[in-house]
């Protein structure tokens, strides 16, 4: 295993943060990229990365890694260090207010223009050419801030990968995934190995999150070149929501790491007998059918349904109680669906999103991700 340190742009004299990447196997074959805790206060992925490292160390010692696997066990040193009054604030950069998982730069048009004279009828040769040009464009892109340098570093490590796994978590949730619709045929196997109850699908959900920045280049290049050159969907990129923020246990993390290893073995990046494909534990639904549950009033929040419950439209999911008037406001599900995530805060502000129900029908438009 090779350890590589990537210094970020220094925000002030005497300070220097860095991203550390762990490299297994060798370049030239299929590549998987896995990163943890892009939202710095979402810690289940960091523990999964620890267990992945232990398993990958053993696999490399046994000579079983047949592809290239890059692991970034802590993807956001900026967010990891942000605390205010003992509260960890790892989702938004305090300098800019930007979400660490949004606004990844787009090199699609520039790369398409640069490589078009060299593309041909061989799809795999086109993929190799586009990957080289994309990586060169990402590495050469200018940055002005520490946050921009962090984004560039993560993209430079991941943009040429066949598989990209971005390990996150929700507040309280079941295991679920986000991926782009063109990725679903290949994502189905990952969902099975992880035992995901739900995969949410969208094509360009808005604000260019990390996973879509890695996968959307391929379907956009395919649309751009049309029938002139064959361009496959050469990257499966997935946001893996490892249940809830407090699901940080060795038992869960070791099992999740093993399931990721089994998926990589199934995909051929690790030698050995190909594991059997597990039965699905859930299904895929449109992200536009994931309905946020908002509280119209402020008050003490108590849930009546557990995460993972199948609910019907009109079912009461939670009560919001005004401690002064004793008024109880019912929060109901707008659709039939899976009650897959809820907040861990137990006081709701007026207008606060407190939970999510995934229905089967696309009902929302515009930007589909939360803040």
TrEMBL record:
The keyword Ligase does not apply. SUPFAM superfamilies: Zn-dependent exopeptidases. Keywords: Hydrolase, Metal-binding, Zinc. Its EC number is 3.5.1.-. This is Succinylglutamate desuccinylase/aspartoacylase family protein. GO terms for molecular function: hydrolase activity. InterPro entries: AstE_AspA_cat, N-alpha-Ac-DABA_deacetylase. Its cofactor is Zn(2+). It comes from Pelomonas nitida. The lineage of its organism: Bacteria, Pseudomonadati, Pseudomonadota, Betaproteobacteria, Burkholderiales. PANTHER family: BLL3975 PROTEIN (PTHR37326).
